[in-house]
Amino acid sequence: MNSRVREAVLDAGRALALPESVTEAFIRLLRPCVYLSPFGELPEELKKDARPAARALGVPHLPEDVDVPSYRPHVVTIDCAALPAGVLDIDFPADGHLIVLAEITDDPEDGVVIHLPPGTETVERHSQQTSHEPFPLYAVPGLTRPVDLRWAQVAEAADYAGGDAERARLVTKLIDAIGEVPDVRWRYDIQLGGYSRAFHNPVEGRGRTLFLSIPESTDFGDGCITLVSGTPEQIAARRYDELEFDVES
Questions:
Q1: Which residues pair with 35 in a beta bridge?
Q2: At how many degrees (to 10) do helices 3-15 and 165-180 cross?
Q3: Each residue's pLDDT tens digit, 44-56
Q4: E strands along 108-172, which residues?
Q5: pTM higher than 0.85
Q6: Residue 91 class from Cβ within 10 Å (0-12 exposed, 13-18 middle, 19+ buried)?
Q7: What is the DSSP-derived secondary structure letter of residue 199?
Q8: Which of 42, 30, 43, 21 is nearest to 1 (CA)?
């Protein structure tokens, strides 16, 4: 847990005169993620030593014998070894390259997620669609909270605020304050791990875990967020062919 975030949330709870046990319960709900951001959007403290952790768009580099649909464009290739170690709470590869191919639309067909071990020989593979100019992305650790979080879902908050409108109002203000903490505030970047940013049909509500999400943007698909998810078992076993692609629009 980022100590800066912890103190910011505790301070917000103290400002509202909430019991620390209630605030701590919300802190325990936070889950880590890693964002992949363009250099210009990096926090200033990360720019000095930044090195690319991924390449977005352009054409994929794949082994010649890997069979993938030529109409699915390259979204991102992630250099897994360049990600900050020990941040994610999902089983994400620690080395090699993770490649995502998908046509980002409001009604997508299933995409493709491929992990290549270190040293795999590859060649450029061109899709039938026009390739956009590639650009680098950089890793930014973050934290996420459930997008539809309500105080009644947290036992300590329900015990404290149940039946008391004023207490319920204060706990709701704490939830809003947590969402505004800089390291918890949602970023419009590719997201690895953490909670899904889905208001209508969160993957967590279906017993699934977010593996990664592709943001709504002019680069990746204006008008929708693409969520790639699986069960913890599928993710841990790297059964990436079983991952599901969903759209939040």
A1: 140, 191
A2: 150
A3: 888 988 999 999 9
A4: 112-116, 123-124, 135-144
A5: yes
A6: middle
A7: S
A8: 30
